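Q: Please design a sequence for this.
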């Protein structure tokens, strides 16, 4: 697989070499003309012509709004204009070095070999300087980041723990990670995605803990992406996952820095993308999706009880409507007589079979849930609560559905909200309909068959080479202390077996 990557990198280097040979020149007029031809007729590209020390012609380019204007004027233009000691005996290389080290006061300065690289940096907010008689493309780091303040994530609300979350700026998000993890082995590697957007991203991992094969696999999959724009990590997730037909998420996403730190110290690789607060973590197992951030912050008795409750909620979210359909339609003898008579009385006059009744109610609640998300927040909350009450009560009064069916659907919806990972809760909602169809045709046998098929799929699923159902299968008893329950922290000495970490010990006691 690395041959394709190597071939692609060689082709890129060759194109860059061709660009360098064709377009770079010592003539300032030709350099400016080339830059203007590339950027076209963009009015937000600011060009400033001036003379260094009143003698040497130069031109400076930056994008209005992306670059720090006052910094450009005070720390680049003024020092160069007022520079009065140009030694004509210096070579072009020595002159540039002298200007950058003793005249200009910017910390980050770089030289680009091709116009492709220089224009890309220019469009990112850096300032481009070209000087007459010197075939150098000089870039100054003048980017300014207009960003949303660091706020509490709305998609991952917790009871206890840090309240800060990622925002849409890549460097801010990397800073939030480094702020908590000050290990010098924390490695951050930057890159760009998208042929048109050239969106910055970062691969973050802990050297000495994360398996290098996993890092190379993540880097390889990202390097193989070929798309025009990359606006969100959800797009990357769909391209680099192993099984595109699986409804289960194969990467974990989060807005929380503390959850990211836990993933990094467990040997996972993190992908941070500029322009989105959601970051990706790979690989992921099913047990990762059932864990919440605050599990580590509460005492083990509380965390164990809540985690067991989540697994019970997951079972309800997937199987409860199907169980109701199967028992009411095929297995009435399994219901105690008193309860059977009560259900029969509530269903008296209902014109639909149990499957149609459940299907209509589930679709109605899904519509209400989606409408509540898309509408403005105050209206959305009202629609979700009032709409559910009004429609449920009206449906029962009209005799379209039974009161028991409304209770079943309501409990199922509440259970789906107890799942920490939003993307896997959507998966459970999809699987619920498949289980309902199976129950409508085969009763409890259909539910059992659905359960077996789901488990077969999960056992065969992989996330970047790691077993999705680990440590359920392959069975690892030593990790069950942090699986369906969360044991005392003093006993959790080892890191998870998936992914294969280089340092398995978290602590020695």
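A: Design:
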């Amino acid at each position: 697989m690395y041959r394709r990557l190597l071939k692609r990198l060689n082709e890129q280097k060759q194109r860059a070499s061709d660009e360098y040979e064709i377009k770079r020149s010592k003539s300032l007029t030709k350099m400016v003309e080339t830059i203007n031809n590339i950027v076209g007729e963009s009015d937000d590209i600011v060009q400033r012509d001036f003379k260094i020390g009143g003698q040497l012609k130069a031109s400076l380019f930056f994008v209005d709004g992306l670059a720090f204007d006052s910094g450009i004027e005070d720390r680049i233009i003024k020092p160069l204009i007022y520079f009065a000691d140009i030694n004509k005996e210096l070579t072009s290389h020595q002159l540039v070095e002298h200007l950058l080290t003793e005249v200009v006061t910017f910390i980050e300065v770089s030289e680009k070999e091709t116009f492709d690289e220089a224009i890309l940096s220019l469009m990112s907010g850096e300032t481009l300087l070209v000087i007459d008689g010197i075939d150098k493309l000089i870039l100054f780091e003048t980017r300014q980041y207009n960003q949303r303040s660091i706020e509490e994530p709305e998609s991952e609300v917790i009871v206890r723990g840090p309240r800060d979350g990622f925002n849409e700026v890549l460097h801010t998000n990397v800073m939030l990670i480094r702020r908590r993890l000050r290990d010098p082995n924390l490695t951050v590697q930057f890159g760009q995605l998208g042929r048109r957007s050239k969106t910055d991203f970062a691969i973050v991992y802990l050297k000495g803990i994360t398996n290098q094969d996993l890092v190379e696999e993540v880097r390889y999959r990202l390097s193989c992406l070929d798309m025009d724009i990359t606006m969100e990590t959800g797009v990357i997730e769909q391209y680099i996952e192993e099984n595109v037909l699986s409804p289960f998420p194969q990467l974990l996403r989060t807005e929380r820095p503390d959850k990211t730190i836990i993933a990094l110290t467990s040997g996972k690789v993190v992908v941070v993308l500029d322009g989105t607060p959601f970051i990706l973590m790979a690989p992921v197992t099913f047990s990762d999706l059932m864990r919440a951030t605050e599990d580590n912050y509460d005492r083990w008795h509380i965390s164990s009880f809540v985690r067991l409750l989540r697994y019970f909620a997951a079972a309800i979210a997937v199987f409860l409507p199907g169980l109701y359909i199967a028992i009411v339609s095929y297995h009435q003898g399994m219901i105690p007589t008193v309860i059977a008579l009560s259900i029969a009385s509530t269903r008296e006059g209902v014109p639909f079979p149990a499957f149609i009744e459940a299907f209509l109610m589930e679709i109605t609640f899904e519509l209400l849930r989606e409408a509540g998300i898309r509408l403005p927040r105050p209206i959305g909350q009202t629609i979700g609560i009032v709409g559910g009450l009004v429609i449920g009560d009206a449906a029962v009064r009209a005799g379209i559905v039974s009161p028991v069916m409304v209770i079943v659907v309501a409990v199922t919806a509440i259970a789906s909200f107890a799942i920490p990972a939003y993307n896997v809760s959507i998966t459970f909602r999809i699987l619920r309909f498949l289980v309902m169809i199976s129950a409508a045709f085969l009763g409890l046998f259909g539910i059992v068959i659905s359960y077996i098929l789901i488990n077969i799929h999960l056992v065969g699923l992989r996330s970047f080479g790691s077993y999705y159902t680990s440590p359920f299968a392959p069975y690892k008893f030593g990790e069950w202390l942090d699986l369906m329950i969360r044991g005392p922290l003093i006993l959790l000495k080892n890191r998870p077996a998936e992914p294969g970490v280089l340092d398995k010990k978290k602590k020695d006691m």
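Q: Thanks. Anything notable?
A: The chain has three domains: 2-140, 170-282, 296-467. The two ends are 42 Å apart (CA to CA).
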